[in-house]
């Protein structure tokens, strides 16, 4: 029985390796591959970098940010599809340690429970460990949900390691044509931002639910116990940056899900204000969820991106002297 299992595992690994070798002939989608995106970032030679999920990718227009700052910054949008917070921290650490020209790093505060980017084995296990420890330290989630979260993360690990679905996805995206901003081919500007001109016609349930969760983040205060594991990673990164005479600013994305609220409600309120840009508690909040500013339920279009970028810039000035 044991020998049979080992043989099947070896076969799966062999098929996976073959798929990896074959797809290596294709250029990876820079919205889904960390190494590729880091290379593009280095080539652009920025002094400010935005790190986050696809909400950052579509939501922050680096060109507008630099224009508002009278070209005193050269910023790069390093947003990747469903980038985990664990990997965001790793990218930031690399920038702090190896890129002397980068002075300010903006990091999207997120807690997604899924992952669609291509990860190396080391990144996969690191991601699962981070997610598991975060869930274990989250008092707002019951034991059953924590166990389910661990199993989902473990399933993602096995999927990334043994399934050839990620590699098949690379091939499919190369041979099919689609105008969809996410399912279609990448259309990144040199500064990393991808702009989408069209808008959705109306509000939907997803937008309404995200709006409720975002509103709760404004009101929650320190009513929930802090997630010490998550916060310790943030504190350590801030200290590393300060030693290198660099600035790290975390920011809420344009929306958060109900699941993200459960975790971020134990994180955001405990980050020092000088290191966090939260949701606006004024009339601008409604603009975040206006269909005219969105191309789907979660992402800003060109108009929304311009509005959100201006908001981030104005808030950044209150938190940094070296933009």
SSE inventory with pairings:
Blueprint: H1 2-23, H2 34-44, E1 48-52, H3 54-59, H4 62-68, E2 75-79, H5 85-98, E3 104-108, H6 121-136, H7 143-162, H8 165-175, H9 205-220, H10 228-243, E4 247-251, H11 258-264, E5 276-277, H12 284-287, H13 302-317
Parallel strand pairs: 1-2, 1-3, 3-4, 4-5
List its traits.
7% strand; five-stranded parallel β-sheet; 51% helix; alpha/beta; 323 residues; 5 strands
Structural overview:
- It is a single chain.
- With 323 residues, this protein is of the alpha/beta class.
- 51% of the residues lie in helices and 7% in strands.
- The protein is built from 13 helices and 5 strands.
- The chain has helices at residues 2-23, 34-44, 54-59, 62-68, 85-98, 121-136, 143-162, 165-175, 205-220, 228-243, 258-264, 284-287, 302-317; strands at residues 48-52, 75-79, 104-108, 247-251, 276-277.
- The protein has a 5-stranded parallel sheet with strand order 2-1-3-4-5, sandwiched between helices.
- Helix 5 (85-98) packs parallel to helix 10 (228-243), helix 6 runs antiparallel to helix 7 and helix 9 (205-220) packs parallel to helix 11 (258-264).
- The model has no long low-confidence stretch (mean pLDDT 86).
